[in-house]
Each structure stands twice: as structure tokens, then as C-alpha cells.
Write a structure and sequence with these properties.
It is built from 9 helices and 10 strands. By secondary structure, the chain is α/β, with parallel strands linked by helices. It has a domain of 169 residues: P-loop containing nucleotide triphosphate hydrolases (Rossmann fold), CATH 3.40.50. The radius of gyration is 18 Å and the shape is globular. The chain binds adenosine-5'-diphosphate and magnesium ion. The site of adenosine-5'-diphosphate has 11 residues, from strand 2 and helix 1. Keywords: Amino-acid transport, ATP-binding, Nucleotide-binding, Transport.
Amino acid sequence: MSASPQQPVISLSGVNKWYGQFHVLKDINLTVNKGEKIVICGPSGSGKSTLIRCINRLEEHQQGTIQIAGHELTNDLKNIELVRREVGMCFQHFNLFPHLTVLENCTLALVWVKKMPQKEAEQTAMQFLERVKIPEQAGKYPGQLSGGQQQRVAIARALCMTPQVMLFDEPTSALDPEMVREVLDVMTELANEGMTMICVTHEMGFAREVADRVIFMDMGEIIEESAPQAFFENPESDRTQLFLEQIL
Ligand code: ADP
Ligand code: MG
């Protein structure tokens, strides 16, 4: 799958989702072009995680269309598989396999999904562990690492699959303050290298520095979407203003 410069890498149109009776995503429209960096913020429960989980089909939407690099996300399992290879994801709680070493966490999908020979998978994994600056941790288990190191392993693991897009769901919110920077630095480097990214985060310094657009969600809706400077200095909506007052 390759996206031409004109073709959006991610495109959501009229997306609605319900959990039972609860309308969690309301008419979401969002286009992300190749190389764009989007930061999503908003109060707890506003649907941010649900939105990005829909983008790699960890959740199903009921109305509207989601396209990744031109492939529509439907119940077609083949399509879902294709899309998941193109979309890397990092979660708040890292979600590493605790019984596998750092290196094994990184090689697993390369060997089983991409059918890469073990030796080559290990070389690839080491390259990405070097990129997130923890090659020396390769033989350890996740439980032996700090939170910041574990999150960097999670990023390396996702990058091993050479995704076109990276999704981050509050990657630093479970970390002790002194470890937030090391993870944001890796994410910033990735952004500077041209990765297409959607980041749910309340790290507003990161948003100012890295985002092309900041999106504010509340109660399942996109309330506001603008360039960082406009977003922070001149928010259009009262709800955005109130939110910013609470977190800044
Ligand atoms: P955010 O990431 O912005 O905090 P979420 O997307 O996690 O918000 O959740 C949005 C809303 O959907 C919340 O009210 C949450 O309780 C509800 N929700 C999330 N997951 C489920 C689920 N699996 N079943 C039912 N309700 C859910
Ligand atoms: Mg969330």
C-alpha cells in the first residue's frame, strides 16, 4: 500500500459509533495527509481512545467510512490485516508481552506476520532499539525496565513493521514525570523524520512544537481543529477555552 502525496493516508467521513445506547463518536470527519502530525486532546471520556482504536479496527464503527491509504475498513479480515500492518500503535500502558524479552517483543510480528527469517528480524529489531536509544536492554524483560524504557520498546516494536502511520494513545500519561521527556524526544524525532502521526496527548508543549493541527474533542465530537498557534492563543470554542484553562 502506498499513498500518493495527494491521497490522504487516513480519511474518516461521517463516522458514528455507539456502545449499546451510548453514542460515543458523533459524525467524525478527519483527513490526515502523508507526513502530517495531529494531536488530539479533550476531557476524559470524550472518545479520543475510541476514535484512534477505530482507526486500526480495535473497535468497530457503525456508520460512515474509514479509509487507510485508500483501503476502506470494513469487516473484510484481509483488509483489516493489511491496514494493521500500515498502522503502528502505542498505548498508555505499553502492552508489551511480559514473558518475552525486549528483543523478542520486537521480532515477534516480524517473524510471524512478515515471515522474516529470525536473524534478519533480530537485526531489524536492533536497528529500531538503537533508534529509541536502548539497544543495551535487548535481552531484558519488560518488568526489568523503567516505564520510559518500556514505552520506547513499544515504539520500537511498532516501528519494526515499518508502518505508514503511528497512533499514540496518551503514551506518557502513565509515566513518572522524569521519564516523560525521553519518550516525547523519541516521538519528536519520529515526527521530524516525516512520520505521519496521530497522538492523543495532553502534553501541550509537544503539541505546540510538533503538531500541524490540534484537535479538541468533547462528548464524542470534534469541537475544534486548528493550527497550534491559533488553537492555544485564540481558541474558537468556549469548551476549548475552558479545557485549556484547566490543563495549562
Ligand atoms: P477518552 O479516551 O477520551 O477518555 P474513551 O474513548 O476511552 O474516552 O471513552 C469514551 C466513552 O465511551 C466513555 O464514556 C467510556 O466510558 C465509554 N466507553 C469506552 N469503552 C467502552 C466500552 N468498551 N463499552 C462501553 N462504553 C465504553
Ligand atoms: Mg483514552
